[in-house]
Amino acid sequence: EGVKEYRGSYDAYTLATENAVQQKAEDKPQKTEKVNDYKLKKERESERRKLNTKVTRAEAEIERLDSLIEEKTNELSGLTDYQKAMEISTEIEELRKQQEQAMQTWEEASLALEEFGE
Predict the structure, then answer these.
(1) In this prediction, what percent of the chain has a pLDDT beyond 70?
(2) CB-based contacts of 92: which residues, under 8 Å, 6+ apart?
(3) Vertex 23, ends 12 and 10: CA angle to 5°?
């Protein structure tokens, strides 16, 4: 810009420039707060979407495992071969463990989602 003319004493000039600098410093945090609020809002929305997805996937996994357990249980009921029955029992046990993990994941995600007010 260049040279600016100021009418008044040197003390009045320094006071005016100090006030201007201080005013600019006060204005900047307000702008960053708005940006931070926007960013925080976007991060919260992203986290909420992730939790929704996690809940949906856990529900689908639980349903899939329910079907498999039911299928294996039906298969087990008609068996006469002891060895095959033991194999299927072991598979059912493993499926139930997986189902328990999926339920725990679902519960944790659901509780976290409730904190968001959903």
Answers:
(1) 85
(2) 69, 72, 73, 76
(3) 15
Count of domains observed in the chain? 1
Containing structural domain, residue 14? 10-115
Over the range 53-78, which residues count as b (16 or more CB within 10 Å of their CB) and which as e?
ebbeebeebbeebeeebeebeeebee
Dump pLDDT digits (tens) for 51-97: 999 999 999 999 999 999 999 999 988 888 889 999 999 999 999 99
**DSSP annotation of 4:** -
Residue 2 is assigned to a structural domain of this protein: no
The residue assigned the tokens 């100021």 is 6
Q: Cα 71 to the chain's mean position, in Å? A: 35
Q: Is residue 99 within 8 Å of residue 66, measured between CB atoms?
A: yes
In the numeric block, the tokens 């299928």 are attached to 71
d(CA 8, CA 30): 32
Give me the residue label for tokens 């307000």.
Answer: 30
Q: Please check whether residue 1 lies inside any domain of the structure.
A: no
Residue 69 lies in a domain: yes
